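Why run this: before we spend reagent on co-expression, it is cheaper to look at a predicted model of the complex and decide which construct boundaries make sense. The entries below are exactly what would go into the expression plan.
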Amino acid sequence: MITRSATAVSALRACTPQRPGTLVGLLFPALAVVTMLFGGGLALGMIQSLGHLPVAGMSSLTLDHFARVLADPDFFKSLGLTLYLSLTSTLIAAAISVAAALAFNALAGRSRAVQFVFQIPLTVPHLVIAVAVVFMLAPSGLLARVLQTIGLISSATEFPLLVNDPWGVGILAAYVWKEVPFITLMILAVLRAGGAELLDVGRTLKAGRWQRFRYITLPMIFPSLGAASLIVFAYTFGAFEVPYLLGQTYPMMLPVWAYKAYSDVDLLSRPEGIATGLVIAAVVTAAVALAQGLTHAARRRGAVL
Amino acid sequence: MFAQRSLKCFTLFAAVILLSTALPACAGALTWPEIEAQAKGQTVDWFMWGGFPSTNAYVNGYVAPRVKELYDITLRQVPVKDIAEVVGKLLAERQAGRGAGGEVDLMWINGENFRTAKRHGLLFGPFADLLPNQKLVNWDKPSVQNDFGEPVEGLESPWGSAQVVMIYDSRRTPAPPRTVGTLLDWARRNPGRFTYPAPPDFTGSVFVRHVFYHAAGEVAAWQGPFDEKRYAAAAGATYKLLKDLAPFLWRQGRAYPENPIRLSQLLADGEVDFAISYHPAEASKMILDGLYPETVRTFVFEEGTIANTHFVAIPFNAADTAGAMVVANFLISPEAQLKKADASVWGDFPAIALDRLEPHWQARFAALPRGAATLPNDVLQQRQLPEPPSEILIRLERGWDEHVLKGR
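The model came back. Tokens follow.
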């Protein structure tokens, strides 16, 4: 028995890279692909956003396109709208997910069927969900027709505007629907891994429900909740199809703006489209950095595990 | 010494490679039977707007099996949202120096996208004159000779012709307004019941051009050289009309349908009372498909509606140019054009001049059922307006975005 575990430990050690060089070597295939495809695309985009598009007769390098995007009176309107929609959908989804994960853990922890049903939205593309939201929530959609049939509203015009609306209700609905299962599963994985003992200790020390949640559960799930929320935020900030189908024509979210400029028949708008795309990337990067910083600080204070 | 020799070898090798890839591009040197022979076994990737189920069904259910049968060509339809994306892709390939082996063999194109592609040298050819069926096309017709004011010069081959029609439900709107002016009045009197797709969608864009003609009070004058001052006055009046109209539109003009499909959905769902289509027979087809009620009809404005020709073109770096040419030729054969004109298939109007056909083909075209909502040919033909040149179209789309949508 002892010998076997000793072998296992030494085997583990053998797998653990001794020098940083080995680690880079092991990760090289994956790193190479990421660097080539992602980094290369980013570099090309950077060059084009600086106005280098020889085929269209543009060969000088200039920051004019960035300046033109940033100086557009609509830019901050679009940025504000994009931040509002991505932050709101992330926060709503995170709140629902925490509640759902706790309920799952307590009630349906052993029911595989419930979990399976919950995983279905993960497999459905955002585009399909956006189209489904149109069919459900539009004034001529399923919900309005049901309400009309049972007599709650007398005509489709009485149905509130939930798609292509000023507050982005349709966009929020699509994102929340899609992202809740993802965040829930991330939290659930942590809850499953342990914590029952800690909660028992909390109970023996007479900690109330809220205290147990605030001082035991939340610090435990926070790292994965934060990471999952960050992924959701980064995605919703840069995704195109949902706001394109469910948003207003104007003002538009930044990804829709970038697409419109990029696909404009006037090739001179392409650098502006790419510049907008890079602005999106910069905002997301800044958000990731900020979140990392905050988590680090919270960890030092001992607020999260 | 060795290095020098290998360099020479390499240059020679490169020259041979270049020549061998350049040769098939010199289509002028080949006769038609040679092109057909070369096309045998090729796979033609046809990039096209994929928004019409009937077009897709025609291409995949009829054209593809027929060219396989007749010429042993595999035709693959690649649906896109806007052919401008493909033009952008070709431009990137040209930039990257990818002069051969491109994945696009054929594209459905016209108007400003043709102009962009032509001006940046993204097209193969001229090839249209080589197609035997070209004798059936009347190249003297202005809308065939010039594509939105841009001379075609054999760089694209016509596929069909289109004319804008307004679609309405005669049960809901027994007496629709029949001029642009009265339609705009009607929209103001019936808030929320009218809208048009947001330009640069091509159907939304053509609606704005009708308002432009209405605001300018003239049509023919725009065909000539571009006059900045005259244009600015007419465009200003157009934007003012549409901006004042916006609060009376569906969703108070804060959201517009993205494309004609969404607009036709709104008409079918009873959210609005008019749809707009570039295809005179589309409404009949949609009745047949059960998407529109049987009371749906179409009309053209008394002052006329814009008509144009749509084409197919081959990119400069297409891998299978011979196959693409054979497909383009088949598309304007009497057989393919007849099938396309059938309202139960697609109902798109022919690109060929019917009087150039043999009598038995003419009879078969005449015998086609027109569909309940399709207007008679003479009504359509008497009320055709030309497209303005592309530069006007592009400026109008820009200006609409700036003034009407963003309200500046």
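The interface with chain A takes residues 82, 84-85, 87-88, 91, 94-95, 112-113, 116, 120, 192, 198, 200, 251, 254-256, 258, 266, 269-271, 394, 397-398, 405-406, 408 of chain B (CB under 8 Å). The first strand of chain B starts at residue 43 and ends at 49. Bring this page to Monday's planning discussion.
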